[in-house]
Specification:
alpha/beta; 5-stranded mixed beta sheet; 6 helices; 49% helix
Length: 191
C-alpha cells in the first residue's frame, strides 16, 4: 500500500511493532513450554476449610508444633528433598491427621510410590487436579482424573483429593463419578 501522510506511516509501524511484540511473547511462551492459565475458577468450600482450621488449632495450639509436623511429613523420598508439592502434601497429611480423618500417626512412605502410610498400614496418595488450564494444556478432564484414580486403587492405595485448584463444577462432576463407581471409601476430600 502507498502511504500518503506521515500519520498513516506512524499508525502502520505502531501496529507492526505491537504484532511483533505479541509474536515474541507467544514464541517465548512456546519456547519455555509454559501454560497460559485460564481465569481463576477454583473453589474451596469455606465450611470444609473452617473445619480443617478448627481441628488444627485444637490439636496444635502452638503453631510451631504444627509446622514441625508439616516439615517432618514434607520430605519426598522420590525426589530426595522437600519440594513445593511435597510441602503441600505434608500440610494436607498433618491437617487430616489433626482432624482424625487419617488414622495417625501417619508417616511418609519410604519408596516414593505413595505419599503416606497411616497407622493401619494403608498407603495414601495425594492427587490434585487443576481447572485453571484448558484440558489440552493439562487441565482437568473427568476421564483423565478417573483413569488416575483407578490406577491408584488397582495398586492397593487410597487417595486424598486436593481440591485447591478445582472449580466447583469439576468437583461436583468428579464427586458424582466417584459415587457412581462406589469409590467413596477409598477417597478423602481435602479440605
Amino acid at each position: 500500500t502507498s502511504l500518503t501522510t506521515p500519520a498513516d506511516a506512524g499508525r502502520l509501524t505502531r501496529g507492526m511493532n505491537t504484532r511483533l511484540r505479541r509474536g515474541k511473547q507467544y514464541n517465548q511462551l512456546r519456547k519455555n513450554k509454559t501454560r497460559r492459565p485460564l481465569p481463576n475458577r477454583t473453589y474451596v468450600d469455606p465450611k470444609r476449610q473452617a473445619a480443617v482450621d478448627k481441628a488444627v488449632k485444637a490439636k496444635y495450639p502452638n503453631k510451631i508444633k504444627f509446622l514441625r509436623r508439616i516439615i517432618s511429613l514434607s520430605y519426598d523420598p522420590a525426589h530426595g528433598k522437600a519440594t513445593p508439592n511435597s510441602k503441600r502434601e505434608g500440610y494436607i497429611g498433618a491437617a487430616l491427621e489433626a482432624q482424625k480423618r487419617l488414622p495417625g500417626p501417619i508417616t511418609r512412605e519410604k519408596t516414593g510410590r505413595s505419599e503416606f502410610v497411616d497407622a493401619k498400614g494403608q498407603m495414601w496418595d495425594v492427587k490434585g487436579f487443576n481447572s485453571n488450564f484448558a484440558p489440552k494444556s493439562g487441565g482437568f478432564t473427568l476421564k483423565k482424573a478417573v483413569d488416575k484414580l483407578k490406577r491408584e486403587f488397582d495398586g492397593g492405595e487410597k487417595v486424598i483429593l486436593d481440591t485447591r485448584y478445582l472449580s466447583r463444577k469439576d468437583q461436583r462432576s468428579l464427586e458424582g463419578e466417584i459415587k457412581n463407581r462406589r469409590w467413596e471409601k477409598n477417597v478423602i476430600w481435602f479440605p
